[in-house]
Structures are given as C-alpha cells and as structure tokens.
Design goal:
360 residues, nine-stranded mixed sheet, elongated
Length: 360
Amino acid sequence: MVLRIIETRCAIRFLVGLSILACAGIQATRANAASCITQSQMTQAQRDELANTARTLLGQIQTNNTQALRSDVIPSLAANFDGIVSSVSHLQPLVQASAITVDQLYLLDAQNDAGDAGTPSAAPVDFFCGSPLVAISFPALPAGTYALAVVHATGVPHPQQVSLILSKSADGHWLLAGMFDKPMTEGGHDGLWYWVTARKYTHTKMNWNAWFYYRIATNLLDPLDFLSSPNLEKLQREAEQIRPTDLPGKTPMTFYAQGQLITVSTIDTSTELGGLDLDVHYAPDPTQAALLRDPMAARGQVTAVMGALLKMHPELQGAFHGIWVHADQGASTLFALELPMNQIAGASNAPAVSSYTVSP
C-alpha cells in the first residue's frame, strides 16, 4: 500500500512517499530487489549507531526542539518543514515524559539497485528482510543507504510506537526521511488484551464484539501497519473467520428505527471521549434531516438508532462504554450524540463472557 500524509485512527504521519508491505514466506520476484539486514545480523557498531540516532531524534521531539530536528532531516523535508512541525506538535505532548526503547532495526542497502544518487528509480525497489520475511517496497528511490527504526515510548498515559525512516547522507550521517506514529494501547488496554477478549467473544458467539476487538488488537499489535508475522497472520485469520455479514462496507447497513429506514454508512470504534465507544455514522434522508434541526427531535432520532442497534445486537452493551452516533450529510455532521449504554432506552445488562485463554 502507498502511505500518504493522511489522518486515520492510527495517526499516519509519513513524510516521504513510499510503499511498504510485509509478508511471511514470500519470495523476491522483482529484478531490482535491494539488500536488508535485521538488527540481529548487524554488528554492534551498526546497532549502536542506528539506535543512538533514533533516540536523539525522539529526544528532539520530546523537547519540542524543532530547530535541532531541522538539521537532522533530509534536504527535501528541511525545505518543507511545516509537516515536521505539525507531526512534532501532535506527538510531543504524548511522549514528553516517556521512556524511549528502540524495539526493532532494519538496515536497507540500495546502493546498486535504485536510481542514481539524488534521482529516484524508475521502478520499485524492494527489500526482503530476515525470517519470517519482511518486504519493504519503495516505489521510487535514489541510490543510497536507508534504515527503519521502530521505537516505543512508554511509561506515560498513552504509550506510542514511533517508526523512523532514516537516510544516510554523503558524509555518513543518518538523517530523518519519514515518521509514522500510532498508539500502543486503546481504552487503557494493550493489543494482547483485546486479542484475548476477542477470543472470549468468539467462544460465546458474540461475533460483533469479537470483530471490533480483533480489529483493535490487529491495529495495536502491528506497530507499523505494514509488518506481518505468523502471530499477526493468525490474528487476522481469526478475525476474518467471524466477520459479521451485516456490517456496512461496500453497501450500507439498513434497519428500521421509530418506523424510519436508517442507512448506516460506517461503524467503527472510538476512544475520543474517554471510554471505548461504538462509533456509528448514518445518512439521514431529507425527512430525517429536517427533523435534526430540532434538538429534541434530533436526540430522539439518534437515540432510536442506538436502541435499534442494541435490540439487534444486545451483546454490544457488555463490550463498549457507549454508542456515539453521527447523522452525516456529505462531509458535514448535522447532529451527533454519545450516550453510555445504561442511558440508552431499552438497554439492559449484557450476558457475561466466559473465560477463554489466548495462545498466540
């Protein structure tokens, strides 16, 4: 997949155009595959150099020292530094008091398989790393030496995973070429907890709960969104086996609430208001949209949507703090409301989930 500067629930903040894919057990098929070594294959000097560079860069982010950071980025980023400043502004409050640990390192050699120095290659350049195999594909890459450092910032309320793309300069210094950050926990729990709980819900046939918990687990346990391992592939297989057929996707989900047809475009999860909520977006028809101009009628309409969902899937009450419903018209939200489960009409205590053990 091609990573761009976009906002998602995982806070993608790449600053260079690249495409990264990771697989287990695949074979190199492109002619211009470059070489890659993992941290276990590096010399101690190589590991120390990359780890120290990663810690220095994170230290500059922790202290909001963008002036120093500007001297440690590749020229194209230094010339367009506003994106870096925005990324630091987002990340700095989250990691300011954190402990920094370098978790993974990859050294990428594209001296002979990419374009000329300073000129991107005409064809993608692939790196195949270690076993299980991790494949990293740059769609256009100048000849050079690169590295990927995955860093954990922990000991803070919202631990973060930060991935740094590094490029070696002509004078031998490592410079920042790209950055990606995402949380390590959601709603106070880590990815393994969500995996364990997803399996509990699967065991009790609560597939809606299981599906959303599997999705959170996958997001948290895959630090880069583009790495794969046997455990992650196992997690993804388990999720697909129980994927509910009535979720909105290519086609919307429809049901009746207060005698009105509701068209739901997306259902996701959110912790924006603190607890783990089910996040529902629906598109009101003209009659429904007109009612949303009246606060009381609008509240009645969206709470009816909540109640209808709980009537269809009462197990949701035990998995989520509440439901957040958005009535959308195009790119705008006409009305939105979040309520805890115990304040939604018709809600009752969901059945308990039996104990079940995960074995990744």
